[in-house]
Amino acid sequence: MSAPGVIVEEGGVATVSVRPSPTIPVFIGAYLVDGARLPITHGCTKINHMADLRKFLSCSVSFSVTVSADKVPSLSSPVVQSSALAVANYFENGGGPCYLLPVALSSDSGQVEAIKLHPDISLVAAVMDNATVDIIEKIIPSLGQNPEYFYIHTPKTLASPPGIPATGKPHVASYHPFLHIKCSHWRDDSGITVSGYEGATTVAQLQTMAPDLYKQVDTLIRTEYAKYPTIVMPSGAAIAAAYCKTDRERGV
Fold it and tell me: Global pTM?
């Protein structure tokens, strides 16, 4: 809507007035863009809601499409964006604005510096695998002089017993077991790369340039997504959602 001197833009999210939670988590995990893990040097990215998440990470399952000389499409080996799906589950369960901090290797460093650049962060959690759990345990002592941080610790594997890391820091809670999370998948065809078809570099371009071929690709993609109705993940993101929702509705 517009009028002389006035411009109103809609952000594509619900307009219900909700008091924001004072708890702002950062989720350390593996996030893929264009088929590659974002490096730690990317730093923290603010994600306000589900629409932000889907804009930042275009597909919940990452792969590329190759078209052969006889116009037969195939998909590369898929990589399920487990960290992204865990964050999606966080929003679905009442979580509010958060940050994503990517890691590509367990040896990555710089997490402490990246987190300190955003003073509104108060909760630290891992949403991936052994590598990020190791990182959580590594950075707790480094942030130990900052009592405003709280840490969600999760076991490394399904078989690992629950336990608090021996950090000497009181603001740490450990949660177990792992959760079976129902996947709310999404995809943006402009974020899926295509090779082997002249003039098209994304699936979105195939839709207009070669509709029949696009239908084949679409069927392949839908079939692939259907293979992953659930994932098994540490409970960090779900617990963070509970913290944020409680703080927002009842106060800290």
Answer: 0.85
CA distances from 205 to 75, 92, 162, 197, 202 (A): 16, 31, 48, 10, 5
Three-point CA angle 158, 94, 173, nearest 5°: 45
Q: What is the pLDDT along the chain (252 residues), one digit of tens a residue?
A: 444 555 545 555 544 444 566 889 999 988 988 778 888 788 999 999 999 999 999 999 999 999 998 889 999 999 999 999 999 999 999 999 999 999 866 566 788 889 989 999 999 998 876 555 667 777 777 766 666 788 888 877 777 776 666 655 667 788 888 888 889 999 999 999 999 999 999 999 999 999 999 999 999 999 999 999 999 888 899 999 999 988 888 765
Beta-carbon contacts of 30 under 8 Å, excluding residues fewer than 6 positions away, are: 37, 81, 82, 83, 102, 103, 104, 128, 129, 131, 132
**Domains of the chain, earliest start first:** 22-247 (3.40.50)
